[in-house]
Fold this sequence. Notes:
By secondary structure, this protein is an alpha+beta fold. It has three helices and three strands, in the order βαααββ.
Amino acid sequence: MEMLSKINNLSVAPRKVRLAADLIRGKKISEAKIQMQFLTKGVAEIILKALKSAEANAKHNFKITDTDNLIVSKIFVDEGKKLKRSRPRARGSAYMVRKRTSHTTLVLSDSLTKSTSKNNK
Length: 121
């Protein structure tokens, strides 16, 4: 059983969100919450909010009372829209500034699901 939480159009670059997301992948939800509470990155609060949302989805939608056994099985960050702005430069030219956004998907499950990989023989 998988519980899902999404954050779309987050105005933080995906590269920055992936740094925090990699820290909690495969951990229990209680450990992941503690990790995000003490992380000094600004995006940690947003990921903590997504963790709490996924936990609330598990309690409400799937009637799971003991959420301590839930594991962050998947968390991935995709690139969203780029807002294109320009900065004035010398001699009347302009410099393109791309303000990047990201889409984050967090999946909780009862146990860690291992992906099957092909053996190289």
